[in-house]
Amino acid sequence: MAEALPRAFVCGHPIAHSRSPLIHGYWLQHYGIEGTYERLDVPPEALEGFLRDMPGSAYVGGNVTIPHKENACRLVDHLDEAAHRIGAVNTLWMDGGRLHGGNTDAYGFAANLDAETPGWSQSGVATILGAGGAARAIVHALQERAFRQIRIVNRTSSRAQALAAHFRGAASAHAWDALPELLPETGLLINTTSLGMDGGPGLELDLSLLPSTVIVSDIVYAPLLTPLLAMARDRGLRTVDGLGMLLHQAVPGFEKWFGRRPEVTPELRALVIADL
Ligand code: ATR
């Protein structure tokens, strides 16, 4: 009997916006791997049944996206360390007949900075703007890289406090108006809020308060050059855009499902940029 082709998916609701099929489709074709990566619209009420049926299905694994990342945690047989710490799953795979859930967002964030700004973790002092799911993954990444200070700044201070509490003191919570005191010591500034996204309000910050050695990164990637990154570049600061995190977070999943560690290349980047 011929061996079945490996099939993977991204599931979410809605799912039309996901760029994961473009990324994994590119790698499948680039490496000549016979397999598929499918876009599946799974509404919240169907997630449990969908994941329960996965072991007997044709799928070797897949990605989980909004709004399922947190719920998937309690529906898998085994959580990896990152998913456990972050409290969200973005990657699924089968191993020994059990459904495993992992989180590659923190890996993607760090791998992108490793590629773009080697030595990025040396300053050891980070200021994160925002306290949502993306910020949670980034706090974990910074903790793994032994940052001495991880400061979370959020419009709604209770969410910043909840996030700091989640990491049991490894991070501190601050109000937006504390930024004038926080920016001068910041080695890495990360925007995880939706401010600066296409069509939305911008992010207003006095970048003159930052040291000249700072790295400014944004996880927003549409537009690629956000107002924050444009202002930072104008000041001659090092900047890292949000697209690289999206590309790098896809690497471990592809390797697990299709058996080959894929590369994040300029060609892949250009392909996704053309689709933004
Ligand atoms: P994600 O999971 O992608 O991180 P999220 O959980 O919706 O998304 O979080 C969005 C972040 O952007 C939050 O930190 C949010 O701040 P609040 O917690 O105060 O809502 C932040 N954000 C969104 N719009 C904002 C705005 N107009 N001004 C300041 N912060 C904003």
UniProtKB/TrEMBL annotation:
Keywords: Amino-acid biosynthesis, Aromatic amino acid biosynthesis, NADP, Oxidoreductase. Its EC number is 1.1.1.25. It is an enzyme of class 1 (oxidoreductase). CDD domains: NAD_bind_Shikimate_DH. Residues 10-92 form the Shikimate dehydrogenase substrate binding N-terminal domain. Gene3D superfamilies: Leucine Dehydrogenase, chain A, domain 1, NAD(P)-binding Rossmann-like Domain. It catalyses: shikimate + NADP(+) = 3-dehydroshikimate + NADPH + H(+). Shikimate binds at S18, R19, S20, T65, N90, D105, Y221, Q249. GO terms for molecular function: shikimate 3-dehydrogenase (NADP+) activity. It comes from the Bacteria. It holds the Pfam family Shikimate_DH. Pathway: Metabolic intermediate biosynthesis; chorismate biosynthesis; chorismate from D-erythrose 4-phosphate and phosphoenolpyruvate: step 4/7. Belongs to the shikimate dehydrogenase family. Homodimer. NCBIfam families: aroE, PRK00258.1-4. Involved in the biosynthesis of the chorismate, which leads to the biosynthesis of aromatic amino acids. Catalyzes the reversible NADPH linked reduction of 3-dehydroshikimate (DHSA) to yield shikimate (SA). This is Shikimate dehydrogenase (NADP(+)).
